Amino acid sequence: MRIRDPAMFAFAALLIAAVGFAQSWNVALAILNMCLVSAIVALGVNLQWGYAGLFNFGIVGFVALGGVATVLVSAPPVEDAWRAGGSGLAFAALIGLATFVCAGIAFFKLRRGRVRALGTAAILLIGLFLYRSFFDPAVEAIESIEPARFGFLGGFGLPVLVAWPVGALLAAGAAYLIGKVALGLRTDYLAIATLSIAEIIIAVIKNEDWLTRGVKNVIGLPRPVPYEIDLQNSDEFVSAANSIGLDAATASSLFVKISYGGLFLVVLLALYALSQLALNSPWGRMMRAIRDDENAAEALGKDVSGRHLQVFVIGSAICGLAGAMMTTLEGQLTPGQYNPLRFTFLAWVMVIVGGAGSNRGAILGGILVWFFWIEVEYIGAILADSLTFWLGEGSALRMHVMESVAYMRLPTMGLILLLMLRFYPRGLIPEK
Amino acid sequence: MDVLQALIVICNFVAVPALAYGSQLALGALGVTLVFGVLRFSNFAHGDTMAFGTMVAILATWWLQSLGIGIHPLPTALIALPFSIAVTAVLLLATDRFVYRFYRAQHSPPVIFVAASIGVMLLFHGLVRLIIGPWDQNFADGERFILSAREFKRATGLDEGLAIKTSQGITVLAAIAIVAWLYWFLNRTRTGKAMRAFSDNQELALLSGIKPERVVAICWIIAAGLATVAGVLYGLDKSFKPFTYFQLLLPIFAAAIVGGLGNPLGAIAGGYLVAFSEIAVTYAFKKVFRYLLPEFLEPSGLAQLLSTDYKLAVSFTILVITLLAKPTGLFGEARQ
Amino acid sequence: MTGGYGGGDIIFGCEIEAGDKEIVVIVGPNGAGKSTAMKALFGMVRLREGTVEFRDEDISALEPQDRVALGMAFVPQTRNVFASLTIEENLEMGAFLRPTGIKIAMEQVYGLFPALVEKRFQRANSLSGGQRQQLAIARALMTEPKLLMLDEPTAGTSPVVMQGIFCHIRNIASSGVSILMVEQNARKALEIADKGYVLVEGRNRFADTGPNLLANDEVRKSFLGG
After folding, report:
1. Which of B 237-296 lie inside 8 A of A, CB atoms?
2. Percent of chain A with pLDDT over 70
3. Per the CB 3.0–4.6 Å rule, which of A252, B22, B112, C13 could disulfide with B108?
């Protein structure tokens, strides 16, 4: 390890501490928690791009699947909704399955020709209508159950931490299906294919209200850490807080954030350790060999597409895990927030800033980029204020500049990406 | 049964909108395919280039409107077009100078260009939001319809109307004019032929004395023109919103890939294919069936295959089928 | 000249000279640096030492396009036509740097290669291997070069086609163009050569007139297979 590497992490810590002093420790810890989650996403993306050279532009989809898993696992079940539409949905699912089986049989058993094409199409079409005839009323029934509060099936009411591995599994499952279809493609085709799959996943989450309440959001998901209000009602906690000179309200919210941070740090360190082990194992060397020269690796008898699928699934699972953690942290699922510009491409900036192929780099990139993503607005506001104060309070130009600050994030990230690619193409902490 | 009414319904709700949307996609896909043919990378910034060009056109339109200049019944945005194309071309040339040229000199692999185009995409997208904001902007003025449903009904005496919006008419005419010009340019002019030669075989183009930087510059200028026109037409037809333009990237890429990247004719065909599929699959055919089928067979539902919320799934399906069945596209990809 | 691609040098202090209206042939074993020497002469490979002179002018610093403008032309071994362009467009691109006289040059070139005339509006990828080679040479001739450089013009062609190409080359030379070519079919090439170079491991090994090299025992044994 070079001496510069820990220094850069220290710098990142310093930045967050500076926010603690300048703004508030509550803000600093909130940023830190999201930095940790971002670092996990970056580790996942680094696995795909840095180790294997795979363009995954569908990160936001996998993150969103992690969020859905959190709802499905931890939200309390809405029993009325199950009663109203559960059987209908089950029937619909059976019909869907049967349709695919029949269509599959028709496709593989019949001889190639017009009969096969028309027959398969007819089975699919009839199946679709049958499916819809059960699915639509069931959905309608579910969505009409107390739409203001529920209107969806709810989840299994399990502890929310269970959702983290489930989120990873859900994302892994989706990645397996996608990878099976798309991984053979040329890099830029893979990028476009994954980009559009992610958009479809997001569309499903936004529109299938019976599953996720869509844009109405699912709020009040359970937490793995205590609630502020319970802490404030606990005499023990209040006296402990007072003894270090904090009032109960501040102390409780700090305590909650630190608890989340602790959980996230454990996950991050565990993933980092695993990634390092993987990187330096024969498997990791093989991955890099494939990345550097696919044809040569293939000629040496390496199973290139198998390895690619593997790393694609693992990396996406990590994104799913991070997505579940993010939703847990927020305590609610907000499908409207899943924007590819914020998730997918920001994660790319993180990996490229940190250094593709280097795990420490990915973590550093995740932390730094998230920090600036949040703080660009704050820094920009100060800059804009000090640059335009001479214009006077009522100046239209000054007002416009101050308003524009809110949109400084994306161009800043684009600029950072371009500057890094140009001047530090190997990132802050290059791969060895 | 009333076949005529059914046909009019289909024309009104599927054929006419798809023709306009397809023309917009075709122009967008032409830009992508041209950049791919000459520079050999998939330009992810194209959607946001469209957004940028449209934004300039909107600003210029507002300015012209404030001066009271217009070309009623046509939308004012049309006279803003040349200016916005010029501004976008300057932006793209500057981007090439400061971003892509460096990697060209390094002979970087295409993935680096794609990564750089992501940076450019974020930059453009941010720039647009910074200047005009992330909201919807409607800048269509002038006469709204060439043929309104009411006029049509009165003239024909039918129950169903057929409406053609001014923006749709302009879109189709503009697309025909631009495609014809591009065809003439690529096949009849020396510069156009040099561009095709460069796209076909860069090394030999160098050996023939074709100046690569000139070809690249012209390619960016044409791409700027195509992107701006496509963006403005789409905005006139629907409305302008930066994020929608980013999302247009997907159907545009689907169109370019279906037709074979680097193949202009393919891009046009791909644009219409994607547009017609998207609109046909997401249209509720209930009304059509009402005219065609006897009463007892009428569908109880909307007879819609897919909700419009999932229209991206259509481009995606077309994309995947193409990539799996014929990765070079229906009309063959430009080789390199 | 000394130079090579990014990594190490491939040619070392080798000297090649072609006089007016001469046919000069470079032969040698595989990997001797023949193609690299050609590319170095044309500015497609960076020279580390040495100079390239053309008509008493030092052109070592010029880009390939500028050398085309001076009257040099190069036909690569592979991918030497614009496959998706028509024959006529290929020729037009060959004359890209000429402001005028394209029609006349085209008629002359069609005169040399009559087989191309009837296919002038077909795409180049519809041509047979031999016709493709003809088109590649024709494209290079469109600038009316003083020096035509050919990289293995007969690679992968049948003996009949090869004979035809050598015949064309001789015709071109007699019309006043100097020719410099790398050839695998050393014996045949030396037969029509005014001058020949034998390149081994990036250095000049022998340099003499074509007939003399053919007569040289050592050259015959080592490079011409007896």
Report:
1. 243, 246-247, 249-250, 253-254, 257
2. 100
3. B112
Q: Yes or no: say if C179 and C153 are a contact pair by the CB < 8 Å rule.
A: no
Size of interface A-B (CB pairs under 8 A): 125
Number of domains composing chain C: 1
Q: Tell whether A402 is within 8 A of chain B (Cβ).
A: no
Which sequence spans correspond to the domains of chain B?
3-325
Query: What is the structure's pLDDT at C11?
Result: 63
- Among A203, A206, A410, the residue with its CB nearest the CB of B122 is A410
Domain holding C80, by residue range, is: 21-32+63-193+208-223
What is the Cα–Cα distance from C94 to B182, expressed in whole angstroms? 23
What is the three-state SS of B36-74? HHHHCCCCCCHHHHHHHHHHHHHHHHHHHHHHCCCECCE
Instruction: Report how far apart the first and last C-alpha atoms of chain A are (Å, whole number).
Output: 9
Would C28 be classed as within a structural domain?
A: yes
pTM, to two decimals: 0.90
Q: How confident is the model at residue A5 (pLDDT cuts 50, 70, 90)?
A: confident
The answer to whether the Cβ–Cβ distance between B122 and A414 falls below 8 Å is: yes
Arithmetic mean of pLDDT over chain A:
90
**C144 at the B interface (CB within 8 A)?**
no
* Cβ–Cβ under 8 Å, residues B195 and B38: yes
- Characterize the bridge pairing of strands C57-58 and C147-151: unpaired
CA separation for the pair A133, A115 (Å, rounded): 27
Give a yes or no: residue C58 inside a domain. Answer: no
The residue of chain C with its CA nearest to that of B202 is C82
Contact A186 B310 (CB under 8 A): no
Q: Is B210 on the interface with C (CB under 8 A)?
A: yes
Residue-level pLDDT at B336: 42
d(CA A393, CA B266) in angstroms, rounded, equals: 56
CA distances from A295 to A53, A366, B275 (A): 14, 32, 38
CA-nearest residue to C77 within chain B is B204
Q: Using alpha carbons, select from B268, B296, B273 the residue that is nearest to residue B32.
A: B268
Assigned token pair, C199: 């390149």
Name residues whose C-beta falls within 8 Å of residue C88's C-beta, 6 or more positions apart in sequence: C106, C120, C121
In angstroms, the Cα distances linking B170 to B140, B269, C71 are 12, 19, 50
Q: Could you tell me if A414 lies within 8 Å of chain B, comparing CB atoms?
A: yes
d(CA A211, CA A208): 6
At CA A68, angle to CA A67 and CA A71, rounded to 5? 95
What does the alpha-carbon distance between residue A235 and residue A253 come to, in Å, rounded to a whole number? 16
Chain C, nearest residue to B333 by Cα: C84
pLDDT in tens, A130-152: 888 888 888 888 888 888 888 88
Closest CB to C93 among B194, B211, B335:
B194
Cβ neighbours of residue B277 under 8 Å, at least 6 residues apart? Answer: B314, B318
Specify the CATH number for the domain of residue C212.
3.40.50.300
Spatial CA neighbour of A126 closest among A108, A143, A106? A106
Quote the crossing angle between the two packed helices A344-354 and A359-388, to the nearest 10°.
Answer: 110
Is C54 contained in some domain? Answer: no
What is the ipTM, given to two decimal places?
0.90
- Domain B3-325 fold is ABC transporter involved in vitamin B12 uptake, BtuC (1.10.3470)
- The CA-based angle A45-B316-A41, given to 5 degrees, is 15
Nearest neighbour of B102 by CB, restricted to A132, A345, A422: A422
Residues of B in contact with A348 (CB under 8 A): 115, 118
Chains interfacing with A (3 or more CB pairs < 8 Å): B
Q: Are strands C178-182 and C147-151 parallel, antiparallel or unpaired?
A: parallel
pLDDT band at B274 (very low <50, low <70, confident <90, very high): very high
Task: Provide the residue type at A137 as one letter.
Answer: P
Q: Could you tell me if residue C56 is inside a domain?
A: no
